[in-house]
Amino acid sequence: MYFKTSLLLITLLLCFNCAENIPLPFQDGKNTVFTSIPQSHSKIDFKNTVEENLYFNFLNFSYIYNGGGVAVGDINNDGLEDIYFTSNQNSNKLYLNKGNFVFEDITESARVEDHEGWSTGVTMVDINNDGWLDIYVCKSGSLDNRKARQNKLYINQKNNKFKEEALKYGLKEYSFSTQAHFLDYDKDGDLDMFLVNHRADFRNNVFITDPKLQPRLTKDDIDRLFRNDNGTFIDVTKSSGVAKKAWGLSASIGDFNNDSWPDIYVANDFLEPDFLYINNKNGTFTDEVLTRFKHIPANSMGSDFADINNDLLPDLIVLDMMAADRKRGKENMATMSTAKFNRLVNRGYHHQYMSNMLQLNNGNKTFSEIGQFSGIAKTDWSWAPLIADFNNDGFNDVFITNGIENDLSNQDFRNSMRKNIKNRKKVSLEEAIGMIPSTKLANYMFTNNADYTFKDVSVDFGFDAKINSNGAAYADFDNDGDLDLVLNNQSDKASIYRNNTEANYITIRLEGPKHNIKGIGAKVQVYANNTQQLKVLYTSRGYQSSVSSHLNFGLGASKMVDSLKVIWNDNKTQTLRKIEANKRLTLSYSKAKKENIVVKKEASLFDSISASSIGINYKHKSVNFDDYNLQLLLPQKQSTIDNALTVADVNNDGLDDIFIGNTMGFPAELYIQNSLGTFVKTNQELFEKDKAYNDNNALFFDADNDNDLDLYVASGNYSQPEKSALLQDRLYINDGKGDFSKGKLPKMLSVTKAIATSDFDNDGDFDLFIGGRLVSGKYPNAPTSYLLENRKGNFIDVTSKRAKELQSIGLVNDAKFSDYDNDGDTDLILAGEWMPISFFNNNKGVFTKVDLPTNTKTGWFQTIKAIDYDADGDDDYFVGNFGKNNKFHPSEKTPLHIYANNFDDNNSYDIALSKESEGDLFPIRGKECSSQQTPFLNEKIKTFREFANSNIIDVYGKENIESALHLETSSFSSYFIQNNGNGNLEFIALPNRAQFGPTLDFEFLDLNKDGVLEVLGVGGIYDSEVETIRYDASQGYILTYNNSNKTSIYKDLISLSNKEVKAIERISIKGKLHLLLMHPNAELSILKLK
């Protein structure tokens, strides 16, 4: 990174400025990327302040601290971007850019002084296409004065003066407005307007709204859509399908389904879910938020839609209010009710979580939410996200404004208010406001690491000031090729930051068609040095603000743009080639030509086959049990761990057959394949008799040495009591024709899952390892695992004799017999939760745990597969873990801990997750849910503040913690374990795309016929507790072994499944390779390899 601190450059600037009578640049001597320009230099003295009174305050207007917006644009066409601020209670301000970050307040002379009402968002737009920017100001807040809520449209008179003409244009609106967005939704060549509004009935923001009430809403409460008919805006809200009532705080415009038509995302506060209005191309929209996104924020605030990974697909960021600071998080967050959460989902609302969200565009009309993976999930009470390239390296970064005047969500304050109401204690407004904690917070700057993650560089980039900021906008105020920032602050002077980056760039100005002269909605693609970038021109972004209409592309060290392409709204295009960097170009619609745009679609690797079309009518049924009634603080449900799917030829006809387990009350199913490639269900009477069991896993193997495959099924469920007869595993003996009968096993009353087979005693038959998965109601206590020796078809428990360490090894999910040390016998390798990948060396049939350096790498490992992937003659291993897209982020330096004990002497087995902060261990869960698990905490720790400052011993007591079961995990990454021989096992984290979610299963196929197997990984866990975002981002992935002997993503935009996947198995159907995918509460998916 280079900064503009050259003495020669400064000297030249000084001379130039004197000659041209331009103000001198500000110099503070600091070596930061951004310089805060003081008011003494900028002359910007705008300050947004709010005064509450008895009739208007936080009690009757919840948005009183939401702040104001800011718009930037060149209002006098002098080549310098100017600034307009909105003030909630005082006059808005217009500042003219005089150069070098000096501005002149021309509010009065420009006739845009506006003392009336409560101003919110502002947009600069050339609404009459005369080449001069106009200003549209939104109003809200005036609860009992509708006239004061009239939005203002200031038309530019081309002489630094404006005239208010909202009525003339049909935009004299009186709604509770947040922000206006201009777009050509009907593609008729002119700009229409979408107006984000919010409801005023804040008292109903905790109640589910009956959908039947939506049509009865007043127009002041609902979002509005206006169609531009020859320069006059006509309200088409109802006929277009966007008449919904919510607490809208922002919107993002763009193409969400890749059909080249603009769609509308509305970010809604409180209970109401966000809206995703997909453009039907006929003047109407359909809300598809439930199908396009797996989950959304609980309290959506600002939003932005732009490409973060340079795949030419815009991605969505929506902010919420989860604090990164542990103490603030504990003080300001009440528990999320499981019952309420599920009730919302069942009533047609979304899965909504309190967290910032980054929705990665998958290119197949779906999105994967990776906010926690990317590192931007927690930025406290956040308002404006701006996605732009702030360091000109060619990748978009993220700037986020942060803070609120008073912490209305502070739980101690809320409890005090409830107590006063209950006791009928009268409190003055001043006293009530004084009860609310107030903390100023710094804003955030995240730079893009070009790997789906971001780095917090806030302090390094100069954003260390503790100041509560709301609206924000970017523009190149000094025309030096980088993006500067301006912020509307709460109760503080506005901030303006100069960007000191010195890297190559190209800046694009658009001249659109006559009815959209700024080219709003046009796309520009830039290709340089093997990178590609996309920017789409919509100026209303972030929160209550609008940014520059110039598109700035960072080029890093590249001095040449290989090619640049503009795509206008009617799909006319223009392409330029070999453009020198550091230019400001104007692209005109008049030079564009009609082109048949061919959307390049990645060739699909698979065809989807309906299971029922080939005779498979199986449907999985998940266990319907509330695990949290047994253990309130479980990290995720334990009753839904089953994934019994296995393939083998059970009748020796050379064709693959399928066994699929099910859950309690639903029989397993066995399908026999015939020569036509269809399947017939068999043995149903047998499985019907055993449907009371829960099938966790299954494996075909020859139990009785008669050259056919028998079936082992691991059983049990978290919901079943300890020692229940239904915990017993089952063995089914094959008669050689595919007809099975019940076999015998030793008594094994444990919830099991892992099954592995090998002749570990070298007597010519197959022995078994059975991994215990959990103890009912006592997570994470280690259940019993078993080593079963096969003695002429009878299985004997020899665990204590041959592998005593295995008996209580942990929560085992998977196991493989594999000769990891290449000594000619099969060793045993285990994958499980709260444990390392554990290697047990086989010494003449006796297994001893191997002490490896990698034993410190503990995880929530789900699966392990053995394969000689590097073709060096020994087994390597792929292990699936939970992935890195979660809130825990354990590491060897700061592992995730769990303590388990009967903390309060009742019948429940209590658990406490904790993590290190400031050198001490603190509970992860909050006061309210922790007190629900152990009610004595209500008396012991009275306030949320006290709980936030209490470590794990303070909360539960030294004796309870010291006597508790204590486990920890240091990594959630999925790995390729490369076996380098001599016990040297190298853990190599799988590529980032493989870490978007849990990997529950692997399969291996040679997709490109190069003799090297590709790795297919699948998984998802949607049963997390409601304060943990469900693990739903992965659509599966395919890895290949590249020329540098590393695993890498085989192809981007490959989606194996957009559903939750429990297991994957390869199968040959009618001689063709297929994949089976098992989903909870659904039929099998079948993919045929092309």
Which characteristics define this entry?
35% strand; five-stranded antiparallel β-sheet; mainly beta; disordered N terminus; 1090 residues
Give the topology, please:
Elements: H1 7-20, E1 34-36, H2 39-42, E2 70-73, E3 82-85, E4 93-99, E5 102-105, H3 107-110, E6 118-125, E7 134-140, E8 152-156, E9 162-164, H4 166-169, E10 177-183, E11 192-197, E12 224-229, E13 232-235, H5 237-240, E14 247-254, E15 263-269, E16 275-279, E17 285-287, H6 289-292, E18 296-297, E19 303-306, E20 315-318, H7 326-332, H8 338-346, E21 352-353, E22 357-361, E23 367-369, H9 371-374, E24 382-388, E25 397-402, H10 411-422, H11 429-435, E26 444-448, E27 454-456, E28 469-475, E29 484-489, E30 495-499, E31 504-511, E32 523-528, E33 531-536, E34 540-541, E35 545-546, E36 551-556, E37 560-567, E38 572-580, E39 583-588, E40 593-594, E41 606-609, E42 645-648, E43 657-660, E44 669-673, E45 679-682, H12 684-689, E46 695-701, E47 710-715, E48 730-734, E49 740-742, E50 751-758, E51 767-774, E52 786-791, E53 794-797, H13 799-802, E54 811-818, E55 827-836, E56 838-843, E57 846-849, E58 858-860, E59 863-867, E60 876-880, E61 896-901, E62 910-917, E63 920-923, H14 927-933, H15 936-940, H16 944-948, H17 952-956, ...
Parallel strand pairs: 18-21, 31-39
Antiparallel strand pairs: 1-30, 2-3, 3-4, 4-5, 6-7, 7-8, 8-9, 10-11, 11-12, 12-13, 14-15, 15-16, 16-17, 19-20, 20-22, 22-23, 24-25, 25-26, 26-27, 28-29, 29-30, 31-36, 32-33, 32-37, 34-35, 37-38, 38-40, 41-73, 42-43, 43-44, 44-45, 46-47, 47-48, 48-49, 50-51, 51-52, 52-53, 54-55, 55-56, 55-58, ...
